[in-house]
Design brief:
binds nickel (II) ion; 28% strand; five-stranded mixed sheet
Length: 134
């Protein structure tokens, strides 16, 4: 059984690798390499795969999941500049892939191991990343 919670957050970023030349950063990251940053409206779908607890009828109380996402994702990342404000990305390029990995690791520390965590992060309406720990 899988239960899901969808959240949104807005954040700015710049994609660049400091070891690359300006030309190479421009070639690889394009518009996302804009030196003055730019924003995305991210949508995050968090799904937990697990068994129904016969005593509650829940896989997990989604209020608990919502509170964890609030603390681990929205408070640190919403309305932030990921490169400048968030130590998680001090040495990590804030691509959708790496944002998803960071969030997955944060949630993994907060949720019982009995749950499989599946994340889908949309950076735009058309581009998304999926990660389930492997
Ligand atoms: Ni971007």
């Amino acid at each position: 059984m899988k239960v899901c919670r969808r959240e949104t957050f807005n954040a700015a970023h710049r994609l660049y690798n400091p070891t690359f030349s300006d030309e190479k950063n421009e070639a690889i990251f394009g518009k996302c390499n804009n030196p003055n940053f730019h924003g995305h409206n991210y949508t995050l779908l968090v799904c937990l795969d697990g068994e129904i607890d016969p005593e509650t009828g829940y896989v997990i109380d989604l209020k608990i999941l919502s509170d964890i996402i609030e603390e681990e994702v929205k408070e640190p990342f919403d309305h932030r500049n990921l490169n400048l404000d968030c130590p998680e990305f001090a040495d990590l390029i804030p691509t959708a892939e790496n944002i998803t990995l960071v969030i997955w690791n944060k949630l993994r520390q907060r949720l019982d191991e009995k749950y499989t965590i599946e994340l889908t992060l949309w950076e735009t309406e058309r581009n998304s990343v999926y990660y389930n720990g492997k």
